[in-house]
Amino acid sequence: ISSPFFPPDSSWDAAYERELQTFQDIGDTGEIWFGEESMVRIIRWLEKHKVPLDSSVLDIGTGNGVLLVELAKSGYTNLTGIDYSLSAIRLSEKVREKEGMSNIKLKVEDFLAPSAELSGFDICIDKGTFDAVSLDPRDAVGKRKLYVGSLCRVLKPEGFFLITSCNWTKEELLNEFREGFEILEELPTPKFCFGGRIGNSVTALVFQRK
């Protein structure tokens, strides 16, 4: 399966290497997946539900790390970003330095095989990483199961999982995460109209680990 959103496995590093060079040249952090409104939506939910500012937050597939910077600016202090692309982590480190957010923790991790120290998080956030895993032509079904298993390991019981997806409907995501998670809320996302039918191009859900 191919998608204009997601490059094949081998080109993630190349894509982030280009963004890293651009950032070093002109200070542009690169693309914000799903746009700035997706970050605002997440932060508003955390604030609305009075999630404590010292809650441990994991950004799964952090990319350029901009979401973590925005969370830090909103007062959150216990932030970790992971990505399996070394170039992505190098880029997010540069962004972190530029913004003076030295307390953001960044590390190279494959979420499908997380290290033992990656555990005990109050909040996990995913903007597009589950989508990318789902599009992997090499055993996508098996990798989705690995993802759910990893999420159960790293997220505390009763912890929150906020996912933003452009590939899956609400019903499909409910099915994917039925083992170990329950839906709390669907967050409003932009609607589009095509052929007289109105739908959502992006789905954003909040789950709680059982």
UniProtKB/TrEMBL annotation:
GO terms for cellular component: cytoplasm. The keyword Repeat does not apply. Transmembrane segments: none annotated. GO terms for molecular function: protein-lysine N-methyltransferase activity. It holds the Pfam family Methyltransf_31. Residues 56-185 form the Methyltransferase domain. It comes from the Eukaryota. GO terms for biological process: methylation. It catalyses: L-lysyl-[protein] + 3 S-adenosyl-L-methionine = N(6),N(6),N(6)-trimethyl-L-lysyl-[protein] + 3 S-adenosyl-L-homocysteine + 3 H(+). HAMAP family: Methyltr_EFM4. This is EFMT2 methyltransferase.
